[in-house]
Specification:
single chain, mainly alpha, Tetracycline Repressor, domain 2, 2 domains, 21 helices, 67% helix, globular
Length: 401
């Protein structure tokens, strides 16, 4: 047994539970050794995670470096972008457990995420230098951010849809998936660019007749729940924390919630329903598919901007992929499916991204855009220009640039 054996086992063992638990005992058990034997190589769990981080950086650059150089040398910018997108998608589709580690322990950790490009550069792949043109500047969502976010979401969907199948996908599955990613990055949902360019975004962004409903007494209690989750995360938020925020005693909370799971469940379900109610009312302002789509997206953004604690809670779900035993109401998945996209969306056969997956992708991008706001900018001050950029990427892909 050496460090490499331990690290590769850790990717698999911890990845199977999405890093909810990261104890060394399970790794020792999987390797057939004692826990003290692991300490000869790694003095702590954190030291092992650091070793996994270094392994990931080495492995990723080793896979991507040649294609990155080829993409940079391409005279056709879009062709270079697509070459990189294809290879990123291929890497994460091939290596499921490394992908899970990257999603949760790298891009879900602000310190590791902040230094990832420098780590790649040290290993000979300077993406920051060669791909600077993809940064939109002015605090707006960068092109590389949107591409990476889209790929990460689609890879998650790929592995989720393969649940129950062998860990390693077939070559046919990988190539079909890569083609799908290329189609999404190239053309988005395939809307007509002329119709999208003709939209009066400023008019659509005007507040309609429908206001975000005021909070009731129960909503204020659920807001206290959301505040505790935003502060400590769903795993660590306690009934005591909610009691302090709500002004109730812990015993008083049990008049409203059976237990912590019930408390979290009620909060998520209530907020999902409120978001959908508001978005559906805004969508009803237009009968035009292109307008409906933007109205739904910007209304979700408006709702979350008005409820920062809910936004932060949603970000926990986005980065941690928590299994809380809570299912979102089916209506949130139909909110985009109910828009008549048949004429607007042009996907290859068998590659449709509608209904549940589409709604999740939009939520994922909206939350990501708000959470990546420039330092010193409040959620409420995030410009709608950011959501226009995201919208055009979703419906047109890089063709929208």
């Amino acid at each position: 047994m050496n460090k490499k054996d331990i690290i590769e086992t850790a990717f698999r063992v911890w990845g199977q539970e999405l890093f909810k638990t990261t104890g060394l005992s399970k790794i020792a058990q999987a390797l057939g050794v004692t826990k003290p034997a692991l300490y000869r190589h790694f003095e702590s769990k954190d030291a092992l995670l650091d070793g996994m981080y270094g392994y990931y950086c080495d492995h990723y650059v080793g896979f991507m470096k040649a294609s990155s150089e080829k993409a940079v040398e391409s005279r056709d910018i879009n062709r270079g972008i697509l070459l990189m997108a294809r290879n990123i998608a291929e890497y994460y589709a091939r290596y499921k457990y490394i992908f899970i580690f990257a999603l949760i322990e790298v891009f879900g950790d602000k310190n590791r995420e902040a230094g990832i490009l420098e780590q790649f550069a040290v290993r000979g792949m300077d993406m920051k230098k060669h791909w600077a043109f993809l940064d939109a500047g002015d605090g707006y969502p960068s092109r590389i951010q949107m591409i990476a976010t889209a790929i990460f979401f689609l890879v998650t969907l790929f592995h989720k849809n393969r649940a129950g199948k062998p860990v390693d996908p077939t070559e046919e599955e990988i190539q079909r998936f890569i083609s799908f990613v290329e189609e999404i990055i190239s053309h988005g949902l395939g809307f007509d660019k002329r119709l999208v360019d003709a939209l009066d975004f400023a008019e659509l962004e005007k507040t309609g007749a429908y206001q975000i409903p005021p909070e009731g007494e129960n909503d204020r209690l659920l807001k206290a729940v959301a505040g505790a989750v935003a502060e400590a995360g769903p795993w660590n938020a306690s009934m005591e924390m909610v009691a302090r925020r709500s002004g109730l005693s812990k015993s008083g909370l049990y008049a409203h919630f059976k237990n912590k799971a019930d408390m979290l469940g009620q909060m998520f379900i209530t907020e999902f329903v409120r978001i959908v109610d508001y978005a559906e009312l805004e969508r009803s302002r237009s009968a035009v598919v292109e307008e409906q789509f933007y109205l739904v997206m910007v209304s979700i953004a408006n709702y979350l901007r008005s409820r920062p604690e809910i936004l932060i809670t949603m970000d926990w779900l986005k980065t941690r992929r928590l299994e809380l035993g809570v299912s979102a109401p089916p209506r949130i998945y139909r909110i985009f499916g109910d828009i008549n996209l048949k004429e607007a969306v042009k996907f290859p056969e068998g590659s449709e991204l509608t209904g549940e997956a589409l709604a999740q992708w939009i939520m994922f991008l909206v939350v990501d855009t708000l959470m990546r706001r420039p330092e010193g900018i409040s959620f409420s001050d995030v410009s709608n220009t950011s959501f226009r950029i995201v919208y055009k990427f979703i419906v047109l892909g890089i063709d929208g640039w």
